[in-house]
Amino acid sequence: MVIGAGPAGLTAAIYLARFRRNFVVIESGGSRAAWIPRSHNHPGFPDGVNGKVLLSRMRKQAEKYGADIRSGRVETLTPLKSGFRIETENETFRSRTVILATGVIDNAPNIPGLERGVEKGLVRICPICDGYEVIGCRVGVIGKDDHCAREAIFIRTWSDDVTFIHVGKDPLPKTLAADLKKAGVDVIDSAIQAVEIRRRKITAFDFGEDEKRSFDVVYSALGVTPRAQLAVQAGAKLDDSGRLVVGDHQETSVPGLYAAGDVVRGLNQISTAEGEGAIAATDVHNRLREGR
User: Fold this and answer.
1) What pLDDT is stored for residue 201 in this prediction?
2) Alpha carbon distance 269, 262 (integer Å)
3) How far apart are CA 77 and CA 71, in angstroms?
């Protein structure tokens, strides 16, 4: 069983199908990769690739080799003496192994028209993915803590005009404020009153008291929430960030339960997720082949 059909889950499906394994993929249609307007750092696509297009191609490739991909939502994952019981809204499965590729949910900022802003490339989530595309842009970074502020400093790699929009309840530590100033990052320490996403790729923020600022691009640095509930049900260990702890072959602390992609600690990158999906699927195949 593969749970999730983002880049990690679909890569696992391609490998398992070509290993001639009997398996099912259950997917809810919630892959965050579908939000990507165009990824320019995925190998093999010099002009970039739309997230939905990439997922569609990967799905077609998996199905070409016989992958059984079904829509649904897994509600329970229960370890058994040999394997697992998986229950969806309508079906119950028994599986010797499970690969979790459930991903994460972005902690989205309160921006009206957020989805439209993401589609237009005005609101972004991952500077590792698309920081190159903001060269020469006026960039705002919405965040509330030290990690978010560090992301604003990181974005100075590409832009000379970066503003950290601090929306946290606690004031910034003096040392962090000094680091931001040293890096050339402006700071706005105020709640956002209103947002307007305009047609010409400008996002305008109203911070009250007649203060308005406009940015070409705004990054949300509010973090993510791992979709790890099923793994917790099964007794798998999490790290301090709430992500799954896995070994060299992507196996969790529960024997036979694997995890790949953003639900595992590491870079939230498509290429990383694909690599982990391939590793997990190969170890599953070897495990079953050896009768483990």
Assistant:
1) 59
2) 8
3) 17
3-state SS assignment for residue 142: strand
Dihedrals φ, ψ of 66, to 5°?
105, 10
Copy the structure tokens of residue 173.
């530590």
Helix pair angle (270-289, 7-18), 10° resolution:
30
CA pair distance 4, 71, nearest whole angstrom: 10
Spatial contact of 227 and 263, defined as CB atoms under 8 Å apart: yes
Confidence (pTM): 0.92
CA distance readout (Å), 56 to 6, 37, 160, 200: 10, 14, 37, 30
Strand order in the sheet with 217-220: 123-124, 217-220, 138-143, 161-166, 185-189
Averaged confidence pLDDT in the chain: 92
Smallest Cα–Cα separation from 131: which of 40, 262, 31? Answer: 40
Whose CA is closest to 99, among 225, 22, 34, 13?
A: 13
User: Mind listing the pLDDT tens digit for each residue in 94-152?
Assistant: 999 999 999 999 888 777 777 777 878 888 989 999 999 999 999 999 998 888 899 99
Residue 252 tokens, joined: 């969790």
Q: Write 116-119 long-range contacts (CB < 8 A, 24+).
A: 116/197, 117/197, 117/203, 117/218, 118/35, 118/37, 119/35, 119/37
Beta bridge partners of 282: none
